[in-house]
Task: inverse folding
């Protein structure tokens, strides 16, 4: 049996913030068992790739990463040939194909859970005594922590593979969530990001999202609390009141509307339409002063006509959301939409995708233009050179939104400073503080 203390590991986390949380829990398990973290995959005895399989592009990225890691593979080190381990959504969905088509992978496991590390140690003859599953960031230098409040999704949108990869929605107990909040608070993070496939569906006994978030606010002094991913049909007045009343909750909401045409939305299994979504946006803007709304749209869904797409573009021009992402539909086995025949040709899908993003570009720029001259709080995340920093405002989530280029003589890493916005681009801001 090999001792974990003589072995190093590296985790490559792909996909969404929820997957990131799984990778961080696995990181905690490795560390507590005595393994040594490696800074680069080529220096690690065990490389774990936590994959994504949401859409075609994500699957391709995961496969590319697997081949890249297999190419990096070192043959022998202290008698332990490097192991390549594939886990996560792709592994859960395509375990058999991966096993048959890429036999060089040493170990395949589904979604990351508490049993993963014991199973891995067992497979590789590694002695393991301690067992934990606490969340430890892969990058110690980040001032924020994702807090996952539930797993899976029961919304069953017709295009989405998540419900059968990650299962029906299961809300975590408040105690489990509070333990993650307390650990992140103790690490001194400046931002907690509450994530789930649909946070609005959270319910644990009598505890709802509103009561949970209130309790989180009461037990932590972390200055920013961000709520991420609300199904548009589930955003209610309770949630809006909570964001309006609790100053530490970022005035930012990520609501993936996916489309605006009622025809497409019905086929997707969603209730809304352009009008109801416009009313929701209006209510949010009226109730929460200065809120920035982010959304994601899916283009090229089967049967999406030119009229449907024009309706979506008109909606985007009308509501002028501050931030928008888009993705192209890909048929996913097992989903309801997979059976639909009338596929939009790739060329048209791509053209619609680019048209949507270029329409949004100007809208985003105009939203940021309005911020010029205003004072705004910035979380300082990185030092570039003397008096130059990179940060983020409460209106920008990490990794997906813009950044703030800050000039400041007195800023310190991971502090929140008040800065004046001096310039802007389509996605980023520039500014100055003392
Ligand atoms: S709400 Fe999101 S995660 Fe859930 S099924 Fe719909 S698209 Fe997928």
Result:
């Amino acid at each position: 049996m090999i001792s974990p203390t003589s072995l190093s590991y590296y985790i490559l986390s792909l996909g969404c913030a929820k997957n990131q949380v799984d990778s961080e829990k696995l990181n905690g398990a490795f560390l507590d068992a005595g393994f040594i973290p490696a800074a680069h995959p080529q220096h690690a005895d065990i490389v774990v790739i936590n994959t994504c399989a949401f859409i075609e592009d994500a699957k391709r990225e995961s496969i590319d990463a697997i081949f890249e890691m297999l190419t990096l593979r070192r043959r022998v080190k202290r008698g332990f040939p490097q192991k390549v381990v594939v886990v996560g959504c792709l592994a859960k969905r395509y375990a058999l194909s991966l096993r048959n088509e890429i036999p060089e992978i040493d170990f395949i496991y589904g979604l990351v859970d508490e049993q993963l590390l014991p199973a891995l140690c067992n497979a590789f003859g590694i002695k393991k005594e301690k067992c934990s599953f606490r969340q430890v960031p892969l990058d110690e230098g980040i001032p924020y922590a994702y807090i996952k409040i539930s797993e899976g999704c029961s919304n069953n949108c017709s295009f989405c593979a998540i419900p059968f990869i990650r299962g029906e929605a299961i809300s975590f107990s408040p105690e489990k969530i509070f333990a993650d909040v307390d650990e992140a608070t103790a690490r001194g993070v400046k931002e907690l990001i509450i994530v789930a496939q649909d946070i609005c569906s959270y319910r644990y006994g009598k505890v709802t999202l509103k009561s949970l978030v209130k309790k989180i606010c009461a037990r932590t002094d972390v200055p920013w609390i961000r709520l991420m991913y609300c199904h548009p049909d589930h955003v209610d007045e309770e949630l809006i009141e909570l964001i309006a009343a609790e100053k530490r909750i970022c005035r930012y909401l990520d609501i993936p509307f996916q489309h605006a045409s009622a025809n497409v939305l019905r086929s997707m299994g969603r209730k809304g339409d352009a009008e109801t979504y416009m009313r929701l946006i209006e209510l949010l803007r009226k109730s929460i002063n200065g809120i920035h709304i982010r959304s994601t749209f899916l283009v090229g869904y089967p049967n999406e006509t030119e009229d449907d797409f024009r309706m979506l573009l008109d909606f985007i021009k009308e509501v002028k959301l501050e931030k928008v992402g888009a993705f192209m539909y890909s048929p996913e086995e097992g989903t309801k939409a997979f059976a639909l025949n009338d596929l939009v040709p790739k060329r048209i899908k791509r053209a619609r995708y680019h048209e949507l993003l270029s329409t949004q570009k100007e809208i985003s720029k105009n939203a940021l233009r309005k911020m010029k001259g205003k004072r705004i709080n910035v979380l300082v995340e990185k030092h570039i050179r003397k008096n130059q920093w990179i940060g983020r405002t409460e209106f920008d989530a990490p990794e997906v939104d813009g950044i703030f280029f800050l000039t400041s003589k007195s800023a310190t890493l991971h502090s929140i400073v008040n800065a004046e916005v001096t310039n802007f681009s389509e996605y980023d801001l520039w500014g100055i503080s003392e």
